[in-house]
Amino acid sequence: MSIDNLDIIKRLIAEKECGRVEFKETTGQLERGMETLCAFLNGEGGTVLFGVTDKGKIIGQDVSDKTKPFATVEVSYTEIPDTGKSVIALSAEEQRYMRPFSYKGRAYLRVESATSIMPQEIYNQYLIQRGGKYAWEAIANPDLKISDDCL
Questions:
Q1: CA 15 – CA 106 distance, rounded (Å)
Q2: Backbone torsions φ then ψ of 68, nearest 5 degrees
Q3: 151: pLDDT confidence band, cut at 50, 70 and 90?
Q4: Is the peptide bond before 119 cis (omega within 30 degrees of 0)?
Q5: What is the tens place of the pLDDT at every residue in 37-56?
Q6: How far apart are the C-alpha atoms of 124 and 134, rounded to whole Å?
Q7: pTM of model > 0.90
């Protein structure tokens, strides 16, 4: 989703922080923002807004080459009139067949308005759903014994 005007940002803020929207005051909170973006990629998608307080106040963020986060998601900058600042929006669409995604070696999950480390069981399920070397036929059955052989 392209977030290129304040009306869209205001609609997202009206939803409050939830399962698909996260507010960060500055890119100084980039670590947590990227963890949440990772969780959005592992879930149903969502948007992280930099330049918005936890209470939903639009304060903006100075934008320069140092504040442009690197991500493989849609990045939008919406200028706030008469301030020289912008709201930075990182939007991730659901990518069910590409997950799990990780950030700095950890996968994250979004539940309601909280981002947490993904449990190993869910991570393994996502790997199986994705296919490849983690397909069902490559997983050992710990309950199977040699005496179960039909030959």
A1: 28
A2: -80, 110
A3: low
A4: no
A5: 989 988 888 999 999 999 99
A6: 8
A7: no
The encoded tokens of residue 135 equal: 């397909």
How far apart are the C-alpha atoms of 66 and 89, rounded to whole Å?
Answer: 16
80 in Cβ contact with 89 (< 8 Å): no
Please write down the HEC assignment for all residues of the chain.
CCCCCHHHHHHHHHCCCECCEEEECCHHHHHHHHHHHHHHHHCCEEEEEECECCCCCECCECCCCCCCCCCCCEEEEEEECCCCEEEEEEEEECCCCCCCCCECCECEEEECCEEEECCHHHHHHHHHHHCHHHCHHHCCCCCCCHHHCCC
> How many whole angstroms separate alpha carbon 93 and alpha carbon 74?
9
Token pair for residue 134? Answer: 């983690």
Q: What is the pLDDT of residues 42-91, one digit of tens each?
A: 888 899 999 999 999 999 988 776 655 433 578 899 999 999 999 989 88
Q: How far apart are CA 24 and CA 53, in angstroms?
A: 6
